[in-house]
Amino acid sequence: MKNGKKILIVDDELSVRNSLREWFLEDGFAVETAEDGNAALQRMHSGPYDIVIIDLKMPGMDGITLERRIREIDKDAAIIILTAFASVETAVEALKLGAFDYVTKPVDPDELSNTVRNALKQRHLEAENTRLKAKVSELTLPSPIIGDSSRMRRVLEMISTVAGTDANVVIRGESGTGKELIARAIHSQSERRFFPIVAVNCGSIPETLLESELFGHEKGAFTGAQYRRKGKIELAHGGTLFLDEIGDIPTKMQVDLLRVLETRRFHRLGGNQEITSDFRLVCATNRDLEALIEEGTFREDLYYRINVFVIDLPPLRDRPDDIPALTRHFIEKYAHAMGKPVKDVSAEVEALLVSYSWPGNVRELENAVERAMVIGREPSIQPEDLPLPLARSEAEPEGSSLAAIERRHIERVLRAEKGNITRAAAALGIDRGTLYNKLRRYDIERL
Amino acid sequence: MATRINLGFLNGYAPSWAERIVQGSALVLGHPVDAVDLEMDLPRYYSADRGQYNATLILAGLLRHHSDPDSKIVGITRVDLFIPVLTFVFGQAQLDGPGALVSTHRLRSEYYGLPRDRERLVERTIKEVVHEVGHSFGLVHCPDYNCVMHAATYVEDVDLKSSRFCPSCEAQLQVDVPRPPQTA
Questions:
Q1: Long-range CB contacts (within 8 A, 24+) of A99-107
Q2: A112: nearest CA in chain B?
Q3: Is this prediction's pTM over 0.80?
Q4: Binary contact (B153, A110; C-beta < 8 A)
């Protein structure tokens, strides 16, 4: 049975080409031969070949030059060099250029078989490695970022831009806007995606524990330190360190963190050994860091160190157009998790969801959908399935200005009338010209 | 349809066990096998540099003696064979062609400093003849360690495999070269 592998033999001696050709045909290879470098390069363009066997010494283009040229055409083919004892040093040079191995002429049949078998095995493993990496990437992709509003499209563009770099990133946004999701998206699109992303919520860990959490500790470093423990900075080696609520980090630790960011070196608590960690830093905050600097609770030098690239996440109330898609996404997620049929939302509920101000942002929306999926009995989510503040959201949130209320009302009516200006103006009790003026004033996009 | 296979013992190489090679290989191959005497100018194919005989050239010379398209010729010699790029070969065949060549030189136990063992030599020679004829019928090396078409680069590999085709090679052979009905 043919083995489906293709081999190219390049040698200026006809007898060598023919005998190798016969040998590999009997092994089930598809075999082609070339008498010199130029003929080989022509054949390479009609490749690809699994294995290329090259004689080192040929008139015209020598084996080393040919190997270099082949690599420009096909970086994956396994190259085996044929050499005489006298030219072993050059063969070693060929290995440095990426040849799989070399064999000296005349070669023992067993050695030739083994070399070819190992080359094929390596090619197979490399191909498998590539395939598995792609699979891992696919499996470790964070939750999709839902949003087609212009502001979210801008955020997605910024993620793509920054992911390919090693620049420090600060993600700013209200609580619940999905800052960690953005951090994971940056990590998963970066070259560091095969290493871990290690998240630390600086706001939720007591100051006394945060230092040990970040830097790790040696056994006996403090009361209760019974074992050596690696810190999050060390664990993030090769990957991404995500520091959430960076604005809450204590002032003393800001100095230590700044030193790590400058040198990528640190000591575990109670340790003498200097540890190096190569990580990319992504921070998130819902606080105004500039104001904290003014107050003197956040170091300016740390701010400039981390603030290389800023991504501002809009609150959900500023992107109501994304609410229906987000709702569908969460319905599918919880239907799958709960083993329930996928529901939809009634028109009334969709209007409620879109008009609500969502102080808890996307997290609040997700919780609302989850709750509705748990308690709802109808095939579609009904107003009574929603949490109370939402069900009452026809009322405007407290403290809204008249302009804000007017803007939201116009948006609601426009959506209900599917962007038809004449009908929307009639529903609002104003003429078309007035409606156009208000659309301009409030920067409202027509559907 | 039967394909006649002629085992050509080269230049008076007439071991007393030649008939056993004929019968043994005929039994496995299922095609008629005959022994014939062949004279070739072997010294012409000798390489003084290598101290061996060039198998590729001998096979080409053998085929010049062969004209019957319905038969195959397998040369059997006691001289040590090589092909230009390899240190030695046990034999050589033209894949899906009319001819093959087998050397008993490295099939002898004495070559490895062991006592003479005729039974083992007969067994190894039958395996190599069947192997090379398999190539001439278009079969390539088989990954099944027990199959006669498994590649052997050491004499131990020859001993490990059987003299028979595995079911997969057997099936392919039946499609490509149907055997004549066996008679009791």
A1: A99/A67, A102/A56, A105/A16, A105/B85, A106/B50, A106/B82, A106/B84, A106/B85, A106/B86, A106/B87, A107/A82, A107/B85, A107/B86, A107/B87
A2: B86
A3: no
A4: yes
